[in-house]
Amino acid sequence: MHPANPQTAPLTEETIRAALRDCYDPELPCNIVDLGLVYGVALTLDRTAPGTGIPGVPARYQVDLQLTLTTRGCVAQTQIVAQIENRLAAFESVSRTEVEMVWQPAWTPERISPEGRKQLSADGRGATLPSRKNDLVQLR
Fold it and tell me: Among 44, 81, 112, 122, which residue's beta carbon has the most beta carbons within 10 A?
């Protein structure tokens, strides 16, 4: 859980990343931010959002995410994208979310944050992750 209230927090890349910590790869006990799957976040003022230009109506933004997965062809892609879209829909200032799948640079376990490594090691299952060559890599 993160401290940002989606109704009142200013919309920033940091706010978006904090919200995305509620989204998990269903195959791993770690959120997509700490797994290093979120490559980029961009906010663009949405001039076509309903209410734009009406006094008192707050500005709304399109969120563009660059996302990768631990492996190409991951069956969880649709589920992860749906989690992202649903999570960001909680922000009144988000008009829509676009997720672009990127494969370069390829994801590797080195992208996992120190917090993500703690989450994975606390899992108790001796978490292992696929490398980009589909081998298993033991986390330490």
Answer: 112
What are the extents of the domains in the chain? 13-107
Contact 49, 60 (CB under 8 A): yes
Q: Is the pLDDT of residue 69 over 70?
A: yes
CATH of domain 13-107: 3.30.300.130
Place of tokens 């927090």: 9
pLDDT score at 2: 47
Position 133 confidence tier, pLDDT thresholds 50, 70, 90: very low
Q: Strand, coil or helix: what is 30?
A: coil
What is the β-pairing status of strands 38-45 and 61-67? antiparallel
Q: H or E element: which one contains 116? A: helix 114-121
